[in-house]
Amino acid sequence: MTIKEVSMKLVNRYIKMIGQKDQHLRNMCLTLVNKMEEWPIDKSSRWLGFIQCGVINLKLTTVKNERDFSRPLFHKAYTNENTVIPQVMDVQSCDTQLATFGKIIVLFIHDNSIIHLVAFEEQPNVATLSEIFNELSTDEEFGLDEEMVKTLKVDIMTMENYITQYGNIEFGIDV
């Protein structure tokens, strides 16, 4: 099994988990299925990571469950492709990660679903937010249609408020 085949297996797993619960996330999965062969591995991996964040945010799975499911598959693929298996690090609690993750969270929300999240050390300026918004609204591969762009909401909050509203953030890192 290759890294791309493992990624495809995970995307298909997420399509089943998502069902009809979040159409934007489902569309991202379907786009990834259609584009994985032509996209570079790093782009596919970023999309897969965002999708994983989405299914965790929807409480359809957990970081631990996905790590335990996917790690053996990726390690086998690394071996098959003669790639060095990354050193495994334990999941760290949010408390120990706050300083490196960011203190201000900017959420881009459509139809009560978080479609993009960016963390900053300090309050971002209007130009930075406009740049991110423009990128989201003009990148066809991101999957936002014209109507979604019109109703896109931006919510800026502290990390503490994010945790209160959306639950704790867990970090699983393969370095």
List keywords for this structure.
12% strand; disordered C terminus; alpha+beta; 3-stranded antiparallel β-sheet; globular; single chain; 175 residues
What does this structure look like?
Helices cover 57% and strands 12% of the residues. It contains 8 helices and 3 strands. Strands 2-1-3 form a 3-stranded antiparallel sheet. It is globular and about 45 Å long. The two termini are 21 Å apart.
Q: In total, how many beta strands?
A: 3
Query: Helix/strand-derived class?
Result: alpha+beta
> Segments where pLDDT lies below 50 for 5+ residues?
92-101, 169-175
Shape: globular
Evaluate the radius of gyration: 17 Å
The main β sheet shows up as: 3 strands, antiparallel
Strand percentage: 5-15%
Amino- and carboxy-terminal Cα gap: 21 Å
Concise synopsis of the structure shown:
This protein has 175 residues and is α+β, with helices and mostly antiparallel strands.
Q: Would you spell out the secondary-structure blueprint of this structure?
A:
Layout: H1 3-18, H2 23-35, H3 41-57, H4 63-80, H5 94-101, E1 104-110, E2 113-120, H6 126-138, H7 146-151, E3 153-158, H8 159-166
Antiparallel strand pairs: 1-2, 1-3
